User: Fold ATPase associated with various cellular activities AAA_3 from Vulcanisaeta moutnovskia.
Amino acid sequence: MRTVDSKQIMDRLMGEVSKSVIGYEQEVKLLFACLVAGGHALIEGYPGLAKTTLVKAFAKALGLSFSRIQFTPDLLPSDITGSLIFNPKIGDFEVRFGPIFANIVLADEVNRAPPKVQSALLEAMQENQVTIGGKSYELPKPFMIIATQNPVELEGTYPLPEAQLDRFMIRIKLGYPSEDIEFKITENIDLGSISSINTVVSKEDIESLQALVRSIYVDDSIIRYIVNLIRATRNARDVKLGASPRAAQILSKLVRAWALLDGRDYVIPDDVKLLAPYVLNHRIITLGADSTIIIRQLLQQVPTPLMERVLRKS
Assistant:
């Protein structure tokens, strides 16, 4: 297995995206791990944090087809998927494919469109296909939707339903940068432009990494750790609805991809601890408490595989 190559690919991608946005090294790796694991990502952050630029730079460095859909209240489902258009030259209807037919699709400000439009993404995210005029059309491979939303501007927005949120493998919450990073952003006026971004990862590289994910070793003790963590969310204080078995399966996929991009052919407990908040923070319904805080508390309470062995011996 080309574990060394996988790490080199990750390093090249991170270095290239850093030409446009800085301070988001972990977020770039999260997005790439999500793509390699076959998932979709939701990015939340205040205006001005370069959410859109991050996604555009990420897609350009990958050399995949890219489209951006600006979600607005007057958007129609056919504006995303495409529609049947009458062609007078042939005297019949023909399919005009929408912007969803790309490898990387940026759903910008996804919560600004009504539920009917949001639901147009469900089939694409779950089945990797869309239906136009009663006929199903397969989407390009690899395929990934990266959606963004502003967590504070709620006027004129439509909150994503739980079923829609569950289609996202991870939710990344962006915060304000550190003082040093903000100094560098202010100092370098060329940041924010993707014109200098070059393609450093090929489609073949991505397909090879996706195939390698299945060969990553996960010990039974780590599988048990994931299961125990998921089950703990259902009995946690201030939690109305815990995570489902699907969350456990998704976390299991993501930790494999993360280990691969880290240059390893095996998963360690720290992978689970690092990635669990991104997988679970939008999959549990709380009674008003911050879901991320609850998840971090559970990570401290649920014994890791090593701790379990110690407890058994005692």
In short: The first helix runs from residue 3 to 17.
